[in-house]
């Protein structure tokens, strides 16, 4: 595994665009710290983001995981390009000539995906720990390290999404078309949602539950919206007459669905490479 990872990381780091995107990605993750400095006034009202409880333990694990997941497209571009470049520069064929099996080739890509997801999760963990101890009103160990399952969901979300991108890179060969197909795929799932409601289900809720078994939607379901957990928004919503009850827990059934799709896309990627005339 170490040898395969070393080969892939060298390819990524020697590519200027991939190197810039990787640095930009982790720089954006670091911007989590900048949120604490956001303060503004609207008339007599004073808003201080840090004082709203965003960085309180254990809520910070939920908020930072959800916020950091917005930036996964940066690494997705790298992963798709990583695969497209193998075809463009002929390195795939050269690796096979040098003795690497097709299975090893796909596993080297998958190990890189795991490394990206794991490094991102560790980075968010450390950033959250620093911000939490700097701003949180609760510093008891039992509270600090509760709800770490949001980081597990974050890791699985990245793993699943990056594996889909790897599959599209293998299938389509061109990075721009692969990323465009990702958008088409999302639209297709939305159409399926409407069709399922009209043909198979009597409520939108049941159709949405069925949609949770689709690849992209299952990934989206992993990390629920954290904003409604904030006490200030709960109070405002209740006063306005809105129902603020919301399930923001991590469902391990959703994690299992994404892991199943991850295995399927790794298998399909290997199958395509194995059968394709390179």
If you had to describe this structure to a student in words, what would you say it looks like?
This protein is mostly helical and 278 residues long. It is built from 13 helices and two strands, in the order H-H-E-E-H-H-H-H-H-H-H-H-H-H-H. The chain has helices at residues 2-14, 16-30, 59-68, 72-88, 91-97, 102-135, 141-144, 149-172, 175-199, 204-211, 215-220, 231-239, 252-275; strands at residues 39-42, 45-48. The two termini are 24 Å apart. 30% of the residues are buried. The mean pLDDT is 84.
Question: Radius of gyration, Cα only, in angstroms?
Answer: 21 Å
- What is the element string, with H for helices and E for strands? HHEEHHHHHHHHHHH
Going across the biggest sheet, name each strand in turn: 1-2
Q: Regions with pLDDT < 50 over 5+ consecutive residues?
A: none
Outline the fold blueprint.
Elements: H1 2-14, H2 16-30, E1 39-42, E2 45-48, H3 59-68, H4 72-88, H5 91-97, H6 102-135, H7 141-144, H8 149-172, H9 175-199, H10 204-211, H11 215-220, H12 231-239, H13 252-275
Antiparallel strand pairs: 1-2
Helix pairs in contact: 1-6, 2-4, 3-6, 3-8, 4-8, 4-9, 6-8, 6-13, 8-9, 8-13, 9-10
